[in-house]
Design brief:
The chain is globular. The two termini are 34 Å apart. The model has no long low-confidence stretch (mean pLDDT 94). The chain contains 18 helices and 18 strands. The chain binds pyridoxal-5'-phosphate.
């Protein structure tokens, strides 16, 4: 420490001094005193580190009352604000796992708010006046939509796969094609889940080609299950062959073995009707004869985070009775959200317009372009000569490890600001309140209108108004 630094440290005020300043400036506030005191300590600690790190004189302003107050206010605001907050998704990735995956329809969110703040018949049979089952609320509609005999729901699809394997194949063998040993982001890997469920993985075939005879040769007294996994986030192309679910089911019947399909991103709507790549629906998968089908609640389905298990009654009953089920059970908010979302699926037209994930996946480029022009015009109204606003053609993504090969043509608003690099602007947008998360393309910040919601427009305009104050 040099003498200069020593002198500066001596100029740092004590906590009491700053607290006194605070109380004079904010005589009436709802912020608890310990929060203010801790914030002041944090501010002073940071200033101390700054002094010790600097090798030249620091600006006098740092020690002014007004600067101390400003820093304290900033620290208090940060502490009292929520860490988990809404953001504007301007990335164009529809099922963005890092940004919360699926948005619940507004009326579903209202139902969740009511159920979570009121008593409910969560596990109470109102007809009999006795204890009921938590899952009865959604089993019927899941069966109605999927055509399955029975259904249940757990925390997420990873849980659904784990619970199904643990129930049906613990200590026994499960046969899977080498081409389907998927890894999903966040370290969910089929071989690892298999190991944790105490099922023994028997890989068959080659990475690009697997034939019925490969499965058949691997069947032994130790076999408990034949498993097919949807290759959600990758594609094997070229010289390929896979055994379709129907053929695997026929093999299962021949050897009296259950067949399971992990669909990953399950959907009740055939998206190929709306121009997307064809994926098997849940109904088709059940109709193919799979004994167990598992899928996510918050991928292409557009509901809450959940793992759905549908299938043959006796098989699903066994899974329900597994004591581990209790550790994976969904709470009432998820249950409320799931039931309300599933109701919308009874009318496909409504589902496409009311479930945001479906709406964003099927919206036309023309509609997106209309939104883009609207945003561009609003940004132009800011009247700044520093802003250079344009429209660019680009491509959005489905995300969530679904339809990796799907191109989704889109329209973006590009923004350039004189004196500000694209990466600096992207950073300022991200740090705004609420944050706006965009992407950088060809050294331009672009806002992909596919994932921008109607009530995001004003937020985006205000964000740029703030950024314009930046030198
Ligand atoms: C996404 C996915 C999972 C995991 O689902 P979560 O709901 O994220 O737990 C499992 N299997 C496949 C094939 C998937 O695509």
């Amino acid at each position: 420490m040099n003498p200069q630094q020593q002198a500066l440290l001596r100029r740092l005020p004590g906590v009491d001094y700053v607290l006194d300043l605070w109380e004079k400036n904010y005589p009436i506030t709802s912020v608890p005193r310990p929060v203010v005191v801790q914030s002041i300590r944090d501010v002073l600690d940071k200033l101390r580190s700054k002094i010790l790190a600097a090798d030249e004189t620091l600006d006098d302003i740092l020690f002014s009352d007004s600067e101390l107050l400003r820093l304290t206010k900033e620290a208090v605001d940060k502490k009292t604000g929520f860490n988990l907050k809404r953001v504007v998704n301007a990335t164009g990735v529809v099922i963005h796992t890092n940004l919360g995956r699926s948005l619940l329809p507004k009326k579903v969110a209202r139902h969740v708010a009511e159920i979570s703040s009121m008593y409910s018949n969560l596990e109470f049979d109102l007809e009999k006046g006795e204890r009921g089952s938590r899952y009865s609320a959604i089993e019927e509609i899941l069966c109605e939509l999927s055509g399955a005999e029975a259904a249940m729901v757990v925390n997420n699809n990873a849980g659904a796969v784990f619970l199904s394997l643990e129930t049906l194949a613990r200590g026994k063998e499960v046969i899977v094609s080498r081409g389907e040993l998927v890894e999903i982001g966040g370290s969910f890997r089929i071989p690892d889940v298999m190991a944790r469920s105490n099922a023994k993985l028997v890989e068959v075939g080659a990475t690009n080609r697997t034939h019925p005879a490969d499965y058949e040769r691997a069947i032994s007294d130790e076999t408990a299950l034949l498993l097919k996994v949807h290759t959600s986030n990758y594609a094997i192309v070229g010289f390929t062959a896979e055994v379709c679910l129907k053929d695997l089911v026929a093999l299962g019947r021949k050897y009296h073995l259950p067949v399971m399909k992990d669909l990953g991103s399950g959907n009740f709507v055939d998206f190929s009707k709306y121009g997307l790549i064809q994926e098997p629906t849940v109904q088709e998968t059940v109709a193919s004869g799979a004994d167990v089908v598992t899928f996510s609640g918050d991928k292409m389905l557009g509901g809450p985070q959940a793992g759905i298990i549908v299938g043959r009654k006796d098989v699903v009953e066994r899974i329900k009775k597994n004591p581990i089920n209790r550790a994976l059970r969904i709470d009432k908010m998820t249950l409320a959200a799931m039931e309300a979302t599933l109701h919308i699926y009874r009318d496909e037209v409504k589902a496409l317009s009311e479930i945001p994930t479906l709406q964003m996946l099927t919206i036309s480029v023309k509609e997106i372009a209309k939104k883009a022009r609207r945003l561009r015009n609003r940004l132009k109204k800011l009247g700044s000569k520093r802003l250079d606003i344009g429209l660019v053609d680009s491509s959005s993504r489905v995300g969530g490890g679904s339809l990796p090969l799907q191109e989704l043509p889109t329209k973006c608003v590009s923004v350039k600001m004189r004196g500000l690099s694209a990466s600096k602007m992207e950073c300022l947008m991200r740090e705004a309140s609420p944050p706006v998360v965009g992407r950088i393309e060809d050294d331009l910040v672009v806002i992909d209108l596919r994932t921008v919601q109607d009530d995001d427009f004003t937020i985006i305009v205000n964000t740029f108004k703030e950024i314009l104050k930046h030198e």
